[in-house]
Specification:
mainly alpha, 434 Repressor (Amino-terminal Domain), about 80 residues
Length: about 80
Amino acid sequence: MDYNHAIYKYIEYLFKKSELSKRKFAKVHFIEDSTVRDILNKGDYQISLLTIFRICEGENISPSEFFSEVENMFPEAKI
């Protein structure tokens, strides 16, 4: 698994864990609902660092915690 895919899977995990609608998840995480749809559809969407930082803010975690969780959840992920 590549690292980008692991990031998408982790955000999908956060989304499912939240039990929120896509629109509400987006609002809580300070991103557009279209961004949530793009991330969850995993097409060729290139997630920005700003989006990751906003998700971290919504989750009340630091970016280092975010990436640490990605690596813990998906140790096979390679950069």
